[in-house]
Write a structure and sequence with these properties.
3-stranded antiparallel β-sheet; 366 residues; 16 helices; 13% strand; alpha+beta
Length: 366
């Protein structure tokens, strides 16, 4: 299977080429950024890894490659933090908010914005957060999402005009992307779907990233006065199906579904990186109550249970995850010590049963 499919698009007058791997790495970086940006102190990469893996599957090696290649991050010893842009306290606060969001490339929470720019204006993070909250709710340069993160209105379709020609003129210096998607947009039943559902369909038909402005254009054509650009962005961001890349650029569910595959390929073929203990998740401890739950699973099963399935069920770990071997070893040791269960070969365990009278000799393993 070809993993490095190159797609081209125009953003403004710039032609951009992205592979599925490029998009996957941006998606991972954004997940790491969302975790790190509100942190007041540098963080172990192992903590970042645990957070990112809730969204997309990455190994320590892949995450480190992604962090090292993204200018938004820097190291502090063996820990990681974001590296915000330089700000000028002589400029208005709203100008600094714009600068930070341009650097972030994705929405940032109000509290994180307050923390980043507070020292520039000689305020506490708490005081600056209140200033930011007040400004972003009043200024047209920004829009708020349902999780109280802030985006730039320049990512959205500007619908201050009423006529189609004027809306196009206000938003698109280059109409080539619109023209390229017009035939695909006609395949979407806009009236039968919500704006968000229709956008997801168009993203999958396009098979490449599409900007919020372009998605907004086709939604606006279908819904006109009912179309709200910020609501559209928010529903895409919170729906868990589309992938937000940068500056309002989205990829569809069919591309997102390939991220785990191409990231696993990166783990196999990417350059080696040095990993430190801080880069790995903290070891998972197998507590007595964990072993009790696992034994209950074996006792309740009608058929023999496999250890990998028991470990995944109790700890959400697979053989590819860091710490899996240690946890599996502890589970097997616990099973061997419980007389209510018995080993029946390979990695299988079941409820202990009496040995038939005709069996006079057992293998040493039993």
């Amino acid at each position: 299977m070809e993993l490095e499919v190159i797609v081209c698009m125009s953003i403004g007058s710039e032609i951009v080429s992205l592979s599925v791997l490029d998009m996957a790495k941006q998606f991972v970086a954004n997940a790491a950024f969302g975790f790190l940006v509100p942190k007041p102190v540098p963080v172990r990469m192992g903590e970042v890894l645990e957070h990112v893996n809730k969204t997309v599957s990455v190994t320590p090696k892949v995450l480190k490659l992604v962090l090292q290649s993204d200018a938004r991050f820097t190291t502090d010893g063996r820990r990681w933090r974001v590296m915000p842009p330089e700000l000028d306290g002589r400029r208005p606060v709203e100008a600094s908010i714009v600068r930070v969001l341009q650097w972030a490339q994705i929405p940032v929470s109000v509290s994180a914005l307050g923390g980043i720019i507070a020292s520039t204006y000689g305020k506490t993070p708490e005081a600056m957060t209140e200033v930011v909250k007040r400004l972003v709710s009043r200024r047209e340069e920004f829009f708020l999402l349902s999780d109280e993160s802030v985006g730039l209105s320049e990512w959205l379709l500007d619908i201050t005009s009423d006529r189609e020609d004027d809306v196009q003129f206000d938003n698109f210096e280059d109409k080539s992307e619109l023209e390229a998607l017009e035939s695909l947009a006609r395949e979407v039943n806009w009236e039968a779907a919500s704006c968000t559902e229709a956008s997801l369909r168009l993203l999958d038909l396009a098979g490449r990233p599409v900007s919020s402005k372009v998605l907004g254009w086709f939604c606006w054509l279908a819904y006109r006065d009912k179309y709200i650009p910020s609501k559209h962005f928010n529903e895409l961001a919170t729906g868990g199906k589309a992938g937000l890349l940068s500056n309002g650029l989205w990829c569809g569910p069919s591309i997102v579904a390939r991220f785990n595959e191409v990231l696993a390929e990166l783990h196999e073929t990417g350059p080696d990186v040095e990993l430190y203990p801080e880069d790995l998740p903290k070891p998972i401890t197998v507590e007595p109550e964990d072993l009790a739950s696992i034994v209950e699973l074996v006792l309740s099963g009608e058929e023999a249970c496999r250890v990998p399935e028991l470990v995944e069920s109790q700890f959400n770990l697979t053989p590819k995850d860091p710490g899996y071997d240690q946890v599996r070893s502890a589970v097997e040791k616990g099973l061997r010590s419980d007389p209510r269960v018995m080993w029946v070969g390979w990695d299988r365990w079941q409820r202990a049963v009496p040995v038939p009278d005709e069996v006079t000799r057992l293998p040493e393993e039993l």
